[in-house]
Amino acid sequence: METTTSIPIWKRIWDRLGILGAIIILVLIGIVVSFIQNQQVTTAVLSSTIRQSTPLVLGALCGLIGERTGIINIGIEGQMLMAAFIGYLANVYIGQLGVFSVGMTLFLAALIGIATGALLGLLLAFMSVTLKMDQIIGGTVINILAIGITGYFYQVGLTTQGKLQPIALGRLADIPLVGPVLFDNPPITYITLILVVVVHYMLFYTRWGLRSRAVGEYPSAADTVGINVYLMRYVNTTIAGGFAGLAGVFLTLEAVGSFERLMTNGRGFVALAVMIFGKWTPFGAWGAALLFGFATAMQTQFQFMGNLTIPHQFIGMLPYLLTIVVLAGFVGRSRPPAAEGIPYEKE
């Protein structure tokens, strides 16, 4: 068995960052080539990449925080959908009160959406930790519950208070190419980029992160040294649900400004592929999400071109085809936390 000191530093960096470095190199090469050819199209595609990757990053962070603690969460799709719906309704009804400004209304609606995701995370923790249900079934229950509730209570024609607008970061937004892509975005997009760094630091450089990883790898050993396995799984799964809630809020309060049935469109399941492709690391998940976001942005750009002779359905399936390829090629090569999906029985 290899010790930490015997593992080459490049391998340790790769394990921490996942595929992020390789993706950044490939993307930079593509950016340079395409920027020389058409600056406007390049900026549009890269800006769309950031937007499309945002809910995937948040969903992947939700999944990896839970799975690092030993809880499989395939209910990310349902958490996102329910949070998107509740956040949308909160935006509508709080706005109708006429008490708060538009900005405060959106802020309160976002908090309510995040709380919705966290509550569904708490429900998953209750089913997985207390009831010791099969965690796959628990996540499926959340997905079915979200689809049923949002479909039944959805109303057409509700008046919203708008959506979150881009905030240009001063002169940084004027930098060619980089400025419009990174420094002229709405709030949740900025928050997501910050959360990637924060979660990485918390997971690998704090006591909470060490305990979380211990609970996900060797819960009995963690229990022996005084770590409350049940409490850690409850807390982490609930916090992770808040990340999925923020992803849902992004869809209705920042990206679109309205709600439609099944508007998550499989993003929660793609987020799971992103998490696996990123080797259960925040930076790796971010890199994988950028890859998926780039594929989505490119298929949109291809459809806008209008000079393709193949049906648009084939172009539209590119991101989902990439998901299948990633899952088929990388699931067997990635090692999940050892205690993932196994209910803990205190000895």
Order of helices and strands, N to C? Answer: HHHHHHEHEHHHHHHHH
Lateral strand order in the biggest sheet: 1-2
CATH fold name? ABC transporter involved in vitamin B12 uptake, BtuC
CATH architecture: Orthogonal Bundle
Mean pLDDT: 85
Number of strands: 2
Tell the overall outline.
globular
Give the helix level as a range of percent: over 70%
Task: Give the N-to-C terminal Cα separation.
Answer: 27 Å
Largest sheet: 2 strands, antiparallel
> Runs with pLDDT <50, length 5+?
17-22
Which quaternary structure do these chains form? single chain
Helix and strand composition category:
mainly alpha
Cα gyration radius (Å) = 21 Å
Name of the CATH first level: Mainly Alpha
Please tell me about this protein's structure.
Helix content is 71%, strand content 1%. It has 347 residues and is mainly alpha-helical. It has a single domain, classed as ABC transporter involved in vitamin B12 uptake, BtuC. A two-stranded antiparallel ribbon has the order 1-2. It is globular and about 65 Å long. About 2% of the residues have low confidence.
SSE inventory with pairings:
Layout lengths: L8 H9 L2 H18 L1 H30 L7 H22 L4 H29 L4 H19 L13 E2 L9 H5 L1 E2 L1 H19 L1 H11 L1 H6 L4 H27 L11 H11 L4 H24 L6 H5 L1 H13 L17
Antiparallel strand pairs: 1-2
Helix pairs in contact: 2-3, 2-13, 3-8, 3-11, 3-12, 3-13, 4-5, 4-6, 4-11, 4-12, 5-6, 5-11, 8-9, 12-13, 12-15, 13-15
